[in-house]
Amino acid sequence: MDLLLTGGMGYIGSHAAVVLTQAGHRVVLYDNLSNSAQVMVERLERITGVPPLFVDGDVRDTDRLRHTLRHHASEAVIHFAGLKVVGESLDIPLDYYANNVQGSISLLQAMREVGTRAMVFSSSANVYGEPRYLPVDEAHPTGVTNPYGRTKLQVEEILHDLARSDPAWRIVCLRYFNPVGAHESGLIGENPQGIPNNLMPYIAQVATGKLAELRVFGNDYPTLDGTGVRDFIHVMDLAEGHASAVGYLREHAGWQVINLGTGQGYSVLEMIRAFEAASGRRVPYRIAPRRPGDSASCYANPEKARRVLNWTARRTLAQMCATTWAFHSGAGGKGAA
Ligand code: NAD
Ligand code: WQD
Questions:
Q1: How far apart are the first and last CA of the chain?
Q2: Does any ligand 1 atom lie closer than 6 A to the CB of residue 228?
């Protein structure tokens, strides 16, 4: 299929671009490079042997999107573009609503005008808020607690209304749990600007010596070792989930919301130990107070993805750590994500 990937130069979008290209799809990466870099184009070509088409554009630019969709005859859009840092969304909420909500409306208007009515949307387990039961399935009530999560839920609601209004729309909202890891080439991965907010890139930067030590936010949670438990999912498994969702959209109209997780939780201390084993480096840490807003445990019920998309995560925690290490210790970690 001819696919437009907004935010396709970013962490998850670039891995999806690899999987989709290798599956025979033609991808166009539409990105404003606000959190990615041009070097991604040559890295993707090195991995796949196919130079990706890149359009430097903002999703709020409806004219440019309309032109891009028409010019490349895009049959479906995978909408990765957006801002994603929970803490930052509390400081600059307007930027989050403008990029994530206004950007999505602009994209949907362009799609409607050119007649492209199929979308896979990057949503987040963040929309569930504090889990009321585990594992978290799609029927779990939503309960957003920050502007970032609210933007994701608002876009989901817009998409649901659109699907209700016109049966021609084909929409899958994927709620990702905690994506980690990198492509096995070590060429692409997650390399956040500044001090990382998320656990895995932080651990990686401690292992390389870039950061001195990890602060473990709380060791008094009701979990196996007192530290937070999350559903870490290999980004290549996540990328394959998008290929399955695109296949699903070919056959089915309507609206679906689907978790992408492994169903298995690991604690912060388990992550540290697994990373030390994969890298052969020590990861010094100290116990720090809980981080406000964190829950003790969060992991997915991935049954719907298996049933509807015929997809399950296959890669192990050791693979998540080994590929992260290969990226951070090699050439990839020195450039942008
Ligand atoms: P990322 O920042 O690496 O990638 C997002 C890309 O979108 C970047 O290349 C950025 O330059 C681009 N972008 C941002 N605003 C844009 C705009 N207005 N117009 C055009 N391009 C724009 O993030 P990621 O980790 O790859 O996340 C991709 C999507 O998945 C996001 O929507 C994010 O909210 C969602 N998500 C991510 C995670 C995670 O932990 N990484 C978890 C759940 C959901
Ligand atoms: C994981 C665990 C921390 C950093 C966030 C978003 C979510 C999604 C994924 C976008 C927690 C602990 C972390 C550190 C630590 N993103 N930790 N020291 O908070 O589960 O999810 O990213 O959609 O929406 O909320 O991920 O990696 O920040 O934290 O001890 O320096 O690691 O307390 O238990 P989180 P995380």
A1: 26
A2: no
Q: Which residues partner with 26 through β-bridges? A: 2
Nearest to 81 by CA among 15, 126, 17, 32: 32
What's the total number of domains in the chain? 1
Task: Answer yes or no: is pLDDT of 170 > 60.
Answer: yes
State pTM to two decimals: 0.98
Find out whether the peptide bond into 135 is cis, omega within 30 degrees of 0: yes
* Rounded to 5°, angle at Cα 320 from 211 and 315: 175
Beta carbons within 8 Å of 246's beta carbon, 6+ residues apart:
1, 3, 20, 25, 76, 78, 120
Q: Determine whether the shortest distance from the Cβ of 291 to ligand 2 is under 6 A.
A: yes
Element (H, E) at 213: none
Adjacent-strand bridge partners of 55: 30
* CB of 263 closer than 8 Å to CB of 231: yes
- Give the CATH number of the domain where residue 138 resides: 3.40.50.720
Q: Of the candidates 199, 217, 215, which has an alpha carbon nearest to the alpha carbon of residue 290?
A: 217
Choose, from 148, 202, 248, 299, the residue flagged as catalytic: 148
Q: CB under 8 Å to 292, separation ≥6 — which residues?
A: none
Question: What pLDDT, in 10s, does the model give residues 137-165?
Answer: 999 999 999 999 999 999 999 999 999 99
Q: Is residue 219 part of a domain?
A: no
Q: Is residue 142 part of a domain?
A: yes
- Domain range holding 50? 2-180+233-261+300-313
On whether residue 290 sits in a domain, the answer given is: no
In a domain, 272, yes or no: no
Q: From the CA of 283, which ligand is nearest?
A: 2
State yes or no: is 97 an active-site residue: no
Q: Does the CA dihedral 231-232-237-239 come out positive or negative?
A: positive
